[in-house]
Amino acid sequence: MSIEYTWVIKAKNTPLLKKKCNHCDSERFHCSDKFRLNAQKKNIDIWLIYRCVKCHHRYNMTVFSRIRTESISKEIFNRLSANDTDLAWEYAFSRETRRKNNAEADLDSVEYGIQFDEVPIEQIISGDDEMMSFTIKCLFEFNLR
C-alpha cells in the first residue's frame, strides 16, 4: 500500500527587480500588480507596472510591444484590462519576460509558505509495509531549494 502527501508552496509576494531608480538611491522595484495598456490605431503596447520601494517612481516592464490587438486572446486581453493579479504574478515571475526586458529579479526577496496536511508521527512509525511519497507543487519558479 502507498500513501501520497502533497505539499504546496505558495509565494507571498512577487520578486523585487534589481534596478537603479532614476529619482532616488534605491536599487529595488516592487510589482504593483497592475498593467498599463496603450493603443495606437491597430497596435497595442502593454506593460507591467513596477514601483520604486522608496520613492514610488514608476518603471514599466514591457509585456507586449506594438502587437496587433487580434493577436491577443479575448480572455487574456480582458484579464490585462482588469488588472488581474494572477496574470500580473505570472508575468512578474516569468523568466522570459525579464530576459526580454534585460531585467534581473531578486528571487531571494520572495517569501513563501508551505501548505500541507499534518502527518502524525505515529502514522509514519506504524507504516511498516507502506510506502510514503511526497509531491511538492510550486506554481512559480523562484530558485527554491
Description:
With 145 residues, the chain is α+β, with helices and mostly antiparallel strands. The chain has a domain of 97 residues. It is built from four helices and eight strands. The strands form two sheets. The protein has a five-stranded antiparallel β-sheet. It has a three-stranded mixed β-sheet with strand order 7-1-8, with no helix packed on it.
Topology:
Blueprint: E1 2-11, E2 16-18, E3 28-40, E4 43-52, E5 58-68, H1 74-81, H2 85-93, H3 95-100, E6 104-106, E7 112-115, H4 121-126, E8 131-138
Parallel strand pairs: 1-8
Antiparallel strand pairs: 1-7, 2-3, 2-6, 3-4, 4-5
Q: Can you list the strand order of the major beta sheet? A: 5-4-3-2-6
Shape: elongated
Number of helices: 4
Radius of gyration, in angstroms, nearest whole number: 20 Å
What is the mean predicted local confidence, pLDDT? 91
Number of strands: 8
Structural class comes to: alpha+beta
What share of residues are in beta strands?
35-45%
Major sheet: size, sense and barrel closure? 5 strands, antiparallel
Low-confidence stretches: none
Helix and strand succession? EEEEEHHHEEHE
Helical content band: 10-25%
For the termini, the CA-CA separation is 29 Å
InterPro entries: DUF1062 (IPR009412)
Pfam families: DUF1062
Protein name: DUF1062 domain-containing protein
List the keywords:
20% helix; 145 residues; DUF1062 domain-containing protein; alpha+beta; DUF1062; 4 helices; 3-stranded mixed β-sheet; 5-stranded antiparallel β-sheet
In short:
This protein is an alpha+beta fold and 145 residues long. Helices cover 20% and strands 43% of the residues. The chain has a domain of 97 residues.
